[in-house]
Specification:
The protein is of the alpha/beta class. The protein has 11 helices and 12 strands. α1 packs parallel to α2 and α5 packs across α6.
Length: about 350
Protein backbone atom coordinates (compact mmCIF):
# COMPACT_ATOMS: atom_id res chain seq x y z
CA UNK A 1 0.00 0.00 0.00
CA UNK A 2 1.45 3.34 -1.04
CA UNK A 3 1.12 6.21 1.45
CA UNK A 4 0.75 9.76 0.20
CA UNK A 5 2.90 11.77 2.64
CA UNK A 6 1.46 15.04 1.38
CA UNK A 7 -1.91 14.10 2.85
CA UNK A 8 -0.53 13.58 6.36
CA UNK A 9 -0.69 16.46 8.84
CA UNK A 10 2.26 16.51 11.24
CA UNK A 11 1.25 17.91 14.64
CA UNK A 12 3.66 20.36 16.27
CA UNK A 13 3.84 19.26 19.91
CA UNK A 14 5.50 22.47 21.12
CA UNK A 15 3.73 24.76 23.57
CA UNK A 16 4.53 28.43 24.26
CA UNK A 17 3.91 30.34 27.48
CA UNK A 18 4.18 34.13 27.27
CA UNK A 19 5.38 35.95 30.39
CA UNK A 20 3.84 39.44 30.76
CA UNK A 21 4.34 40.18 34.46
CA UNK A 22 6.05 38.71 37.50
CA UNK A 23 4.68 41.24 39.98
CA UNK A 24 1.35 39.89 41.25
CA UNK A 25 0.96 36.60 43.06
CA UNK A 26 -2.41 35.60 41.57
CA UNK A 27 -1.20 36.04 37.97
CA UNK A 28 2.02 34.17 38.74
CA UNK A 29 0.05 31.28 40.23
CA UNK A 30 -1.93 31.10 36.99
CA UNK A 31 1.37 30.95 35.08
CA UNK A 32 2.54 28.16 37.37
CA UNK A 33 -0.67 26.23 36.73
CA UNK A 34 -0.24 26.69 32.99
CA UNK A 35 3.33 25.44 33.24
CA UNK A 36 2.19 22.33 35.06
CA UNK A 37 -0.54 21.64 32.53
CA UNK A 38 2.07 21.69 29.76
CA UNK A 39 4.99 20.11 31.60
CA UNK A 40 4.82 16.89 29.54
CA UNK A 41 4.65 18.44 26.06
CA UNK A 42 7.46 17.57 23.65
CA UNK A 43 8.84 21.09 23.54
CA UNK A 44 8.04 23.88 26.01
CA UNK A 45 8.88 27.46 25.03
CA UNK A 46 8.84 30.16 27.70
CA UNK A 47 8.83 33.62 26.11
CA UNK A 48 10.01 36.64 28.12
CA UNK A 49 9.65 39.09 25.21
CA UNK A 50 6.65 40.81 26.76
CA UNK A 51 7.58 40.89 30.45
CA UNK A 52 7.33 44.41 31.88
CA UNK A 53 6.91 44.16 35.66
CA UNK A 54 8.68 42.21 38.37
CA UNK A 55 8.57 41.96 42.18
CA UNK A 56 10.69 39.65 44.37
CA UNK A 57 7.89 37.61 46.00
CA UNK A 58 6.01 36.81 42.79
CA UNK A 59 9.28 36.28 40.89
CA UNK A 60 10.51 33.85 43.55
CA UNK A 61 7.26 31.85 43.46
CA UNK A 62 7.52 31.59 39.67
CA UNK A 63 11.26 30.82 39.73
CA UNK A 64 10.71 28.04 42.27
CA UNK A 65 7.99 26.47 40.15
CA UNK A 66 9.72 26.76 36.78
CA UNK A 67 12.99 25.47 38.25
CA UNK A 68 11.17 22.36 39.43
CA UNK A 69 9.53 21.85 36.02
CA UNK A 70 12.79 22.36 34.09
CA UNK A 71 14.41 19.72 36.30
CA UNK A 72 11.44 17.38 35.77
CA UNK A 73 11.58 17.83 31.99
CA UNK A 74 15.33 17.19 31.88
CA UNK A 75 14.69 13.90 33.63
CA UNK A 76 12.15 13.04 30.92
CA UNK A 77 14.54 14.25 28.17
CA UNK A 78 12.01 16.84 27.00
CA UNK A 79 13.09 20.11 25.38
CA UNK A 80 12.64 23.37 27.28
CA UNK A 81 13.50 26.65 25.55
CA UNK A 82 13.55 30.21 26.85
CA UNK A 83 13.25 33.04 24.35
CA UNK A 84 12.87 36.82 24.35
CA UNK A 85 16.08 37.28 26.32
CA UNK A 86 16.75 40.72 24.92
CA UNK A 87 18.91 42.98 27.06
CA UNK A 88 17.09 46.04 25.69
CA UNK A 89 14.17 44.93 27.86
CA UNK A 90 15.03 46.39 31.28
CA UNK A 91 13.12 43.67 33.14
CA UNK A 92 15.01 40.94 31.28
CA UNK A 93 18.25 42.77 32.13
CA UNK A 94 17.23 42.83 35.78
CA UNK A 95 16.37 39.12 35.75
CA UNK A 96 19.69 38.49 34.02
CA UNK A 97 21.66 40.37 36.65
CA UNK A 98 20.04 38.75 39.68
CA UNK A 99 20.82 35.27 38.31
CA UNK A 100 17.19 34.34 37.62
CA UNK A 101 17.88 32.43 34.39
CA UNK A 102 20.77 30.45 35.83
CA UNK A 103 18.65 29.69 38.91
CA UNK A 104 15.82 28.19 36.84
CA UNK A 105 18.26 26.10 34.82
CA UNK A 106 19.01 28.15 31.68
CA UNK A 107 22.76 27.61 31.56
CA UNK A 108 23.66 29.70 28.53
CA UNK A 109 22.22 33.04 29.61
CA UNK A 110 22.46 35.36 32.57
CA UNK A 111 24.73 36.01 35.50
CA UNK A 112 25.81 33.23 37.82
CA UNK A 113 23.95 32.78 41.09
CA UNK A 114 26.08 34.48 43.74
CA UNK A 115 27.47 32.74 46.80
CA UNK A 116 28.19 35.92 48.76
CA UNK A 117 25.88 38.85 49.37
CA UNK A 118 26.44 41.87 47.15
CA UNK A 119 24.19 44.79 46.62
CA UNK A 120 23.74 46.76 43.45
CA UNK A 121 21.75 49.89 44.09
CA UNK A 122 19.04 48.57 46.35
CA UNK A 123 18.61 44.89 45.63
CA UNK A 124 20.23 41.58 46.48
CA UNK A 125 20.65 39.19 43.54
CA UNK A 126 19.70 35.55 44.07
CA UNK A 127 22.42 34.33 46.43
CA UNK A 128 23.09 30.73 47.42
CA UNK A 129 24.14 29.71 50.92
CA UNK A 130 25.52 26.26 51.69
CA UNK A 131 24.68 24.80 55.08
CA UNK A 132 28.30 23.74 55.64
CA UNK A 133 29.06 27.45 55.75
CA UNK A 134 27.07 27.69 58.97
CA UNK A 135 28.82 24.79 60.71
CA UNK A 136 31.88 25.23 62.92
CA UNK A 137 35.27 24.41 61.42
CA UNK A 138 36.62 21.45 63.45
CA UNK A 139 40.20 22.49 62.67
CA UNK A 140 39.73 26.04 63.91
CA UNK A 141 40.82 27.08 67.39
CA UNK A 142 38.05 29.63 67.45
CA UNK A 143 34.67 28.04 68.17
CA UNK A 144 31.99 29.81 66.14
CA UNK A 145 28.46 28.51 66.41
CA UNK A 146 26.06 28.45 63.42
CA UNK A 147 23.96 31.11 65.15
CA UNK A 148 26.93 33.50 65.14
CA UNK A 149 27.63 32.91 61.45
CA UNK A 150 23.96 33.44 60.63
CA UNK A 151 24.01 36.67 62.68
CA UNK A 152 26.91 37.97 60.57
CA UNK A 153 25.11 37.18 57.33
CA UNK A 154 21.83 38.67 58.57
CA UNK A 155 23.68 41.86 59.45
CA UNK A 156 25.02 42.15 55.90
CA UNK A 157 21.57 41.62 54.41
CA UNK A 158 19.84 44.02 56.79
CA UNK A 159 22.12 46.87 55.73
CA UNK A 160 20.52 46.79 52.30
CA UNK A 161 17.20 47.81 53.82
CA UNK A 162 18.45 50.56 56.12
CA UNK A 163 20.38 53.81 56.06
CA UNK A 164 23.12 55.16 58.32
CA UNK A 165 20.49 57.18 60.18
CA UNK A 166 18.19 54.19 60.72
CA UNK A 167 19.42 51.46 63.11
CA UNK A 168 19.26 48.04 61.54
CA UNK A 169 19.71 45.90 64.68
CA UNK A 170 16.03 45.00 65.08
CA UNK A 171 15.54 44.49 61.36
CA UNK A 172 18.59 42.22 61.40
CA UNK A 173 16.79 40.16 64.05
CA UNK A 174 13.84 39.66 61.69
CA UNK A 175 16.13 38.56 58.86
CA UNK A 176 18.14 36.37 61.21
CA UNK A 177 15.04 34.47 62.32
CA UNK A 178 14.09 33.62 58.74
CA UNK A 179 17.65 32.45 58.00
CA UNK A 180 17.64 30.28 61.11
CA UNK A 181 14.31 28.81 60.14
CA UNK A 182 15.74 27.79 56.76
CA UNK A 183 18.88 26.38 58.39
CA UNK A 184 16.92 24.25 60.86
CA UNK A 185 13.99 22.97 58.88
CA UNK A 186 14.80 22.41 55.24
CA UNK A 187 17.08 19.34 55.43
CA UNK A 188 18.53 20.63 52.15
CA UNK A 189 22.13 21.30 51.15
CA UNK A 190 21.55 24.99 50.57
CA UNK A 191 19.07 27.84 50.45
CA UNK A 192 18.74 31.08 48.48
CA UNK A 193 18.23 34.74 49.41
CA UNK A 194 16.84 37.47 47.16
CA UNK A 195 15.65 40.99 48.08
CA UNK A 196 14.69 44.49 46.98
CA UNK A 197 14.40 47.88 48.66
CA UNK A 198 12.57 50.89 47.20
CA UNK A 199 13.19 54.56 47.96
CA UNK A 200 9.66 54.76 49.36
CA UNK A 201 10.86 52.60 52.28
CA UNK A 202 9.23 49.42 51.01
CA UNK A 203 11.14 46.14 51.18
CA UNK A 204 10.70 42.53 50.13
CA UNK A 205 13.01 39.76 51.27
CA UNK A 206 12.75 36.18 49.99
CA UNK A 207 14.40 33.04 51.37
CA UNK A 208 13.77 29.70 49.66
CA UNK A 209 15.16 26.18 49.60
CA UNK A 210 14.72 22.79 47.93
CA UNK A 211 14.19 20.92 51.17
CA UNK A 212 11.46 18.61 52.45
CA UNK A 213 8.98 21.33 53.35
CA UNK A 214 7.49 22.31 56.70
CA UNK A 215 5.07 19.40 57.13
CA UNK A 216 7.61 16.54 57.58
CA UNK A 217 9.72 18.55 60.04
CA UNK A 218 6.78 19.16 62.40
CA UNK A 219 5.11 15.72 62.22
CA UNK A 220 7.22 14.23 65.02
CA UNK A 221 5.77 16.64 67.55
CA UNK A 222 2.42 17.31 65.88
CA UNK A 223 1.33 14.01 64.28
CA UNK A 224 -2.18 15.30 63.68
CA UNK A 225 -0.98 17.70 60.96
CA UNK A 226 -2.29 16.14 57.76
CA UNK A 227 -1.10 18.56 55.05
CA UNK A 228 1.26 21.40 54.20
CA UNK A 229 -1.39 24.08 54.76
CA UNK A 230 -1.97 23.01 58.37
CA UNK A 231 1.79 22.72 58.89
CA UNK A 232 2.39 26.26 57.60
CA UNK A 233 -0.25 27.69 59.91
CA UNK A 234 1.18 25.73 62.85
CA UNK A 235 4.70 26.96 62.10
CA UNK A 236 3.51 30.56 62.49
CA UNK A 237 2.30 29.96 66.05
CA UNK A 238 4.51 30.96 69.01
CA UNK A 239 6.64 28.22 70.54
CA UNK A 240 6.63 26.00 67.47
CA UNK A 241 10.02 24.90 66.17
CA UNK A 242 11.57 21.61 65.16
CA UNK A 243 14.70 22.55 67.06
CA UNK A 244 12.75 23.13 70.28
CA UNK A 245 11.98 19.40 70.49
CA UNK A 246 15.10 17.98 68.84
CA UNK A 247 17.96 19.05 71.17
CA UNK A 248 20.72 18.11 68.74
CA UNK A 249 19.45 20.86 66.43
CA UNK A 250 18.99 23.46 69.13
CA UNK A 251 22.50 24.87 69.06
CA UNK A 252 21.38 28.40 69.90
CA UNK A 253 18.44 28.09 72.25
CA UNK A 254 15.63 28.35 69.74
CA UNK A 255 12.29 28.56 71.50
CA UNK A 256 10.13 28.69 68.38
CA UNK A 257 9.18 32.37 68.50
CA UNK A 258 11.17 33.62 65.51
CA UNK A 259 8.85 32.91 62.61
CA UNK A 260 5.86 33.89 64.75
CA UNK A 261 7.39 37.32 65.45
CA UNK A 262 8.32 37.81 61.81
CA UNK A 263 4.85 36.85 60.56
CA UNK A 264 3.01 39.08 63.03
CA UNK A 265 5.25 42.05 62.22
CA UNK A 266 4.86 41.51 58.49
CA UNK A 267 1.07 41.06 58.67
CA UNK A 268 0.73 44.36 60.52
CA UNK A 269 3.06 46.41 58.33
CA UNK A 270 2.93 44.57 55.02
CA UNK A 271 2.55 40.92 54.11
CA UNK A 272 4.08 37.51 54.67
CA UNK A 273 4.08 34.75 52.09
CA UNK A 274 4.95 31.16 53.00
CA UNK A 275 5.05 28.33 50.47
CA UNK A 276 5.74 24.73 51.41
CA UNK A 277 5.56 22.09 48.70
CA UNK A 278 1.94 22.08 47.44
CA UNK A 279 0.62 24.98 49.56
CA UNK A 280 1.23 28.73 49.31
CA UNK A 281 -0.29 31.19 51.80
CA UNK A 282 -0.12 35.00 51.63
CA UNK A 283 -1.39 37.02 54.60
CA UNK A 284 -1.68 40.62 55.71
CA UNK A 285 -3.81 42.26 58.40
CA UNK A 286 -6.94 42.16 56.23
CA UNK A 287 -6.88 38.87 54.33
CA UNK A 288 -5.40 35.43 53.78
CA UNK A 289 -4.98 33.94 50.32
CA UNK A 290 -4.32 30.24 49.73
CA UNK A 291 -2.94 28.80 46.50
CA UNK A 292 -1.98 25.33 45.34
CA UNK A 293 1.58 24.84 44.08
CA UNK A 294 3.74 21.85 43.13
CA UNK A 295 7.40 22.73 43.69
CA UNK A 296 9.36 21.02 46.45
CA UNK A 297 10.79 23.05 49.32
CA UNK A 298 9.95 26.11 51.37
CA UNK A 299 9.73 29.79 50.48
CA UNK A 300 9.29 32.65 52.94
CA UNK A 301 8.83 36.23 51.77
CA UNK A 302 8.50 39.18 54.13
CA UNK A 303 7.19 42.47 52.79
CA UNK A 304 7.19 45.64 54.91
CA UNK A 305 5.57 48.71 53.41
CA UNK A 306 7.59 51.42 55.15
CA UNK A 307 10.45 50.06 57.20
CA UNK A 308 11.47 53.54 58.42
CA UNK A 309 8.16 54.07 60.21
CA UNK A 310 8.27 50.89 62.32
CA UNK A 311 9.36 51.03 65.97
CA UNK A 312 10.82 47.53 65.89
CA UNK A 313 11.70 47.23 69.57
CA UNK A 314 8.24 48.27 70.68
CA UNK A 315 6.51 46.11 68.07
CA UNK A 316 8.60 43.02 68.82
CA UNK A 317 8.15 43.50 72.58
CA UNK A 318 4.39 43.52 72.11
CA UNK A 319 4.37 40.50 69.75
CA UNK A 320 6.58 38.40 72.04
CA UNK A 321 4.48 39.25 75.11
CA UNK A 322 1.27 38.24 73.29
CA UNK A 323 2.95 35.11 71.92
CA UNK A 324 4.16 34.02 75.34
CA UNK A 325 0.60 34.11 76.70
CA UNK A 326 -0.60 32.01 73.77
CA UNK A 327 2.28 29.54 74.06
CA UNK A 328 1.93 29.01 77.81
CA UNK A 329 -1.69 28.01 77.27
CA UNK A 330 -0.89 25.67 74.38
CA UNK A 331 0.06 22.02 73.91
CA UNK A 332 3.76 22.51 74.69
CA UNK A 333 4.25 25.62 76.86
CA UNK A 334 7.43 27.48 75.90
CA UNK A 335 8.84 30.83 76.99
CA UNK A 336 10.98 33.04 74.74
CA UNK A 337 14.69 32.20 74.97
CA UNK A 338 17.51 34.67 75.45
CA UNK A 339 18.24 34.35 71.76
CA UNK A 340 14.64 35.32 70.97
CA UNK A 341 15.04 38.42 73.12
CA UNK A 342 18.37 39.41 71.56
CA UNK A 343 16.95 42.04 69.22
CA UNK A 344 17.66 45.01 71.50
Amino acid sequence: MEINLSSITFVDMSETIDIFSLSKLDSVIRLCNELNEKKDCDELIIDFSYVRYVRPAATAVFAREIRSIVKYRKGKELKTKVQGLNDSNRVVSYLNFIGFFKFIGVKNYGEEVRTTVIRNGRYIPITKFCYTRFKPDPDSREIIQPADLIDIQASEISRLFTTDSMPHVSLKYVICEILRNAYEHSLSDNFFVFGQYWRTGEMELVILDDGVGIHPTLLKKYPYLTNQYDAIMKSLEPGVSRASFEPELNEYGNSGFGLYVVSELAKKHGEILVASNDATIAMNKDRKLVFQTTARGTLVCVKINNIGDVDYDKEIDSIIAAGQKISLQGEYPVSPSKRTLSYK
